[in-house]
Amino acid sequence: MNTMQRLFALVAVLVLAGCATSQRTTFPPPQTPAPPQSPAPERPASKPGDQVGTPAPKTMPARTAQEASSPAVLSLMGRADTLARNGNMDMSAATLERALDLEPRNPFIYQRLASVKLAQGQTGQAEAMARKSNSVAGNNPFVRADNWQLIAEARRTGGDRSGADEAVGRASDYRSASQQLMR
């Protein structure tokens, strides 16, 4: 890639990143102060086992990159997918690494990079990227299930059948957990 193409790519990423974070700040109109109220009666402190009120709703972890990524990162991931489909794995990996510069704690980027590394035959790197994705995914069973499936494939390709079987079991456990969340 020549210098002009790199410069153009950098400008495009910066423009997309600017679009993703651009917000207008509006200030509320000034309000007149409210008259002082008598203090609310004190409630007894709740203990960890107490059930006060309704339970907090379960928050669903992100299941897709679209739910967890900025528009700039989604654009880069789409470009990386196109490059990978066209067989240009090196450029796909480089594009995903640029996305990591924007969102270094996005597990979906590491997961896609693991897939690219696996397609390149770099099984050790594929497993490392899937593990990194797991480390930033928290308790997200959707991401973890797919990562363990990638780890299983990397191990199988590398000749580690027992390690692959263990990873398939872990993927299955996380798939069960994700199905529980969907109920």
Automatic annotation (TrEMBL):
Keywords: Signal
InterPro entries in alphabetical order: TPR-like_helical_dom_sf
SUPFAM superfamilies: TPR-like (SSF48452)
Record carries keyword Signal: yes
Signal peptide (residue range): 1-22
Keyword Signal appears in the UniProt entry: yes
Highest taxon above the source species: Bacteria
PROSITE patterns linked: PROKAR_LIPOPROTEIN
Basic and acidic residues: compositionally biased ranges: 154-168
Composition-biased stretches (Pro residues): 27-42
Stretch list, region Disordered: 23-72, 154-183
Name this protein carries in UniProt: TPR repeat-containing protein
UniProt organism field: Salinisphaera dokdonensis CL-ES53
